[in-house]
């Protein structure tokens, strides 16, 4: 969950949402001494020190249990976009990556239980994240650049997807598992997942699988393109087998995972084939507009994806004197996807990568508790074919980090330090670039009254440019851009402050954050020219500032009824003048939740404002309101196994809505009315 604290000149005070949230807090807070129930505490795995969510200095959201089941969608971006401060990149139905506080791509690091997820989703928004939400057991989101233990480049935040593919314990009754089936109306989707863990003695085995078959999805009423988005289908299959040795002091295990996916790329414009540059201008035939053949889209291209990954995970408690735990995370990934047009492969993407992370948690010393570690990764990426807009590259990264905490009464202090080095080079050896930087963060959480906490986090982080930002050069028809990198780019340097206030117990609970992030030498795609919808993007650098507010407040009306107000707003602009593109508009929502005996349900209205604060060559996006609801019944079989039947609906009014964060917002609006029926059983 996220957090907030105000100051006389807090950046969020300029946002309309700030006043609404602050007024709600002022009118709703009860007396501290009143005996009230507390929210259940959730351990945040990515904290590194087994902290609860309320102990974190940085804003954090955790989805688990029934809430995760309700929120899970086909992609990670769709699953998380309801959280304050988080939206999705929305590229049809097959690809949607989380966008946190206006930042996406490499600035948002996606982890698989602490290990970097090595796919191609940071290269382009039309590339899927190789993680299956149906198989996730918990999803953690750390906002801002303060999660230095996982990489200083994640200045937007970190998303950690936890799963059970590597067993960490022997099931008490020898086996445990779950199964789920669901069907959705908008895309005629059917999906299911099953997971089973068994073991005896010191050996545990885990198997899991998930599958999804969805056609082109239906949009809201009134779209000029018809009732469904052509090429928005998504067929995905994922399977994993894991084996662990489990002892009294820890475990060591490995898992093999394979994912196959086929999904369409809406908005792919064949009319731009042959376009090239003359200096800083685009040239498409005669450049008079008549050569573009009226945007003849032809058949929608299909992504044929295959990802094979091996994970190694381990933990040893009390490994030797003076140390509490030794943890290991490693992964080897062989990722490929082909873009198929008219039955033939037009472009082939390959990504072979490995990463290793070792951390050592020491026993308390003079009141300090913490850990230190080392992390290394290598990525060999190539693209061959019509849209090979990035030259084959080899990127090597390594970093060392330390994280410490100190507690004084109700005050918890935290500090982190990290140093990173990166080498990016063309595979033909014609160019090599080295970048490095040191990052640091300081944070504090003060429990100034029962159930209340105020926090502050200060971070200075460095991010090296990606290989795509350095070496891109070519036409990218999926996003209707011609991209040009700059091998002379410097590392970014960001300075971030988060102020937070949260209340975790009582009839009124809240969690609000204001933030300001100033980034020197911010790397972005600057549009130099535009021709009939095709943009010439030059990766450039300029100082930029991101400010915003995000939060929620819940009032328990009765033991069975509650109401929540939530929302977020972010502003992103270049310090020298101008706005950054694809920044999500302000959102606000109202949710009513209820439970009675075995029933639980909620209904919410989300209002998304019109986004007319746009960058050059960018168009405004109209606002919309969306009505969502869900209901679930929890029961047990005759043998005592828990089961749940659930029904959820999104966009019940069938509103036509567009995602401003999407490159293809006009070609692929958001889904219209969608009703999902599902059943889940645990055993």
Automatic annotation (TrEMBL):
Domain of life according to the entry: Bacteria
Bilayer topology term: Multi-pass membrane protein
Ranges that cross the membrane: none
Cleaved signal peptide residues: 1-33
Q: Which GO terms describe its molecular function?
A: siderophore uptake transmembrane transporter activity
Q: Would you tell me the Gene Ontology cellular component terms?
A: cell outer membrane
| Domain TonB-dependent receptor plug per the UniProt entry, residue ranges | 54-158
Against InterPro entries, the record matches this protein to: Beta-barrel_TonB, Beta-barrel_TonB_sf, Plug_dom, Plug_dom_sf, TonB-dep_rcpt-like
- Single Gene Ontology BP annotation: siderophore transmembrane transport
**Where would you say this protein principally sits, based on its record?**
membrane
Q: What are the TonB-dependent receptor-like beta-barrel domain coordinates in residue numbering? A: 307-652
Q: Which UniProt keywords apply?
A: Cell outer membrane, Membrane, Receptor, Signal, TonB box, Transmembrane, Transmembrane beta strand, Transport
Question: Pfam families under this entry?
Answer: Plug (PF07715), TonB_dep_Rec_b-barrel (PF00593)
Q: Gene3D superfamilies of this UniProt entry?
A: TonB-dependent receptor, beta-barrel domain, TonB-dependent receptor, plug domain
Instruction: Name where it's found.
Output: Cell outer membrane
Q: What family does the entry list?
A: Belongs to the TonB-dependent receptor family.
- Kindly provide the name given to this protein in its UniProt entry: TonB-dependent receptor
Q: Which organism is it from?
A: Alicycliphilus denitrificans (strain DSM 14773 / CIP 107495 / K601)
Q: Which taxonomic lineage does the organism of this UniProt entry have? A: Bacteria, Pseudomonadati, Pseudomonadota, Betaproteobacteria, Burkholderiales
